[in-house]
Specification:
By secondary structure, the chain is an alpha/beta fold. The protein has one domain: Uracil-DNA glycosylase-like domain (Uracil-DNA Glycosylase, subunit E), CATH 3.40.470.10. Helix content is 47%, strand content 14%. It binds uracil.
Length: 191
């Protein structure tokens, strides 16, 4: 199959998925947004209310804040893709259960395979625990780099945490500057 067809098939598979109960309460499947040849893949935990209504990840208040961090390191739209561990909204924005995460993670793995980014950035504790390691401590380990296979992986505070606790924004800016540095480093090693 052509790349475009693979993407369409994967999106349809997510829309039709019944592997956990969340399909029963979702309004829309929230598949992902951004460049399909991105260098950086950002991964959040699950759609919130606005995302569920619009079918687009990070389109609410958290997303607006996230966009400011993207702009602050001058990241171009063609350089990033944004997705979630879960494609359907957990009711009342509760944390996704381990079973729901396990049922859905295969879709993200397929997105990862198609995009083949160089960097993965986990947005918040839930994504970091699933992608980096189960005992990941966001307060202590945000901004650190982990190498898994060919991917450089890091985690930053979830933007909704930054909305609740603006005191964490400065350290998050430093984490984004490290992401920018890594991007520059990788660009240079490519050229
Ligand atoms: N929070 C997330 O983790 N993902 C979204 O898409 C929106 C809010």
């Amino acid at each position: 199959m052509e790349n475009k067809e693979l993407w369409e098939a994967l999106e349809q598979k997510c829309k039709d998925c019944t592997a956990c109960e969340l399909y029963k309460t979702k309004t829309n499947t929230v598949f992902g947004k951004g460049s399909k040849s991105a260098t950086v893949l950002f991964v959040g935990e699950a759609p919130g209310e606005q995302e569920d209504l619009q079918g687009i990840p990070f389109c609410g208040a958290s997303g607006q804040l996230l966009d400011k961090y993207f702009a602050s390191i001058d990241m171009k739209p063609e350089e990033y893709y944004v997705g979630n561990i879960l494609k359907c909204r957990p009711p009342y924005n509760r944390d996704p259960s381990p079973e729901e995460q396990e049922a859905c993670i295969g879709h993200l793995r397929e997105q990862l395979k198609l995009i083949n980014p160089k960097i993965i950035v986990c947005l918040g504790r839930i994504a970091a625990m699933k992608i980096i390691k189960p005992d990941f401590r966001i307060t202590r380990e945000h901004g650190q780099w982990f190498k898994k296979g060919r991917f450089y992986i890091t985690a930053v505070y979830h933007p909704s945490m930054l909305l609740r606790d603006p005191a964490k924004r400065e350290e998050t800016m430093r984490d984004f500057l490290e992401i920018e540095k890594k991007l520059i480093e990788l660009r240079e090693s490519d050229s």
